[in-house]
Amino acid sequence: MSLDLEIMHQRQAKLEAMRAAGLEPYPHRFEFSQSLTQLLAEHGNDTTEQLEASRPKVRVCGRLIALRTHGKAGFAHLLQDGARLQVYTRQDGVDADTFALWKSLDLGDLVGVDGYLFRTRTGELTVHAEKIEFLAKDLRPLPEKWHGLQDVELRYRQRYLDLLVNPDVRQVFIKRARMVECLREQFQARGYIEVETPMMQPLAGGAAARPFTTHHEALDLPLYLRIAPELYLKRLVVGGLDRVFEINRNFRNEGISTQHNPEFTMLEFYEAYSDYHVLMAWSEQLLAQTARRVAGSTAIEFRGTNIDFGHCQRLSLRAAILKFWPAGAGAAPSPDAIHDPAQEAAILQSCGMVYDRAAGEGAGLVALFEHLAEPHLVQPTIIYDFPRSVSPLAKSKADEPAWVERFEIYAGGMEIANGYSELNDPDEQRRRFEQQLALGKAGNAEAHAVDEDYIRALQYGMPPTAGEGIGIDRLCMLLTGSSSIRDVILFPLLRPQQELDQEAEA
Prior knowledge:
CATH architecture of the largest domain: 2-Layer Sandwich
Strand content: 25-35%
Largest sheet: 9 strands, mixed
Structural class: alpha+beta
Shape: elongated
CATH class of the largest domain: Alpha Beta
CATH topology of the largest domain: BirA Bifunctional Protein, domain 2
Number of domains: 2
Mean pLDDT: 93
Number of helices: 17
């Protein structure tokens, strides 16, 4: 029998003994006088003399994370909502039942304590227990406090345990909540309203991605989990909601990496009577203010590098290719050459990449940009102007119709935002959808579907509009210094444990 299993048997026996003695080990409620955080804020600076004079009565609760019994007395530490408080229990200070309960407690048990505050000889604020109530039994042993929970796979699978024993993890998710709150406040201050759009949709639209499929039994209707809320949010702009945003869960049937999780959170927003220049400037302010709120400064450290959201460079996609042109590929193309569609094949071939004419004008340059430039975009950078062939929902540039008014924001070597001036010409949108339909028939699983109702909405007239999506998870990675997206998602998708066990046995 393993040590952990033996401990579980011992604790189960204690639980049964409590029940046999008439003690309810899982009571319904415990009314505390204040949380440990409130108590520390109120009395944390009280002197020994002040506490002795007033003996403040308290009624607190939490999980036992330290326990030291010494015959007729002992100390413990309670943990509640991230705050810790010491408890002192003495046999002649409590009744017999309370002291018997105290002697039977295990690390991890949840208890309530009535008593008064004092300071020990070492000056630590402590509750002198007068009564202890049992609130819940911890039947499994917690990881040893000096080792914590280091197994990364186990941390993700048992996030509840990770949060209990790793305080830094708790802080990551507190910062995430603060980040979302800050973003929401800034949009509301700018006159946006928050809305909700369907998570199950009859067409997978708003982005180029492979969707998850499901089925509604009562309607006998195939549905897709949302890959983006874009087309629904723009319907609302048509309906007269000029500034809308949604903090939404999206689902994309793609691979898993340090930057990708099939279920992720996006902030998506649309502003009527604006274009991509307006959103580029607004995004710089938005990110800088959010960094100040969450990290205390626009300058943060990510993967050993200082990144400053107070300074954001801007480069066109083609200028970024030229800036990061590799020395081994010979002389970089001239600005005229990289703007010439006839030169695209030769430019790709000089870097050892294959040109695919069927992908459309400029699509190869996007792949080249991702290969050459993206890994170098550590400092916040806006990359603007993209090919129409990879941007079916964006408005074309007036002076170059094969390219669109689109931008992406990069930081830490990864894309964190994507925005553009929205295409609002219904006839042109239909042509774009039909081009995507042809790509889908040719085998592109991420091609955009033809959404007839969206075209109908555009036919009622959508004002000039700019829209953008910001990846909440990736932004949280940056602002908390987390190396993997799974570190900022409470319950990331993981391979089944059975598969891992089988691999270990093989």
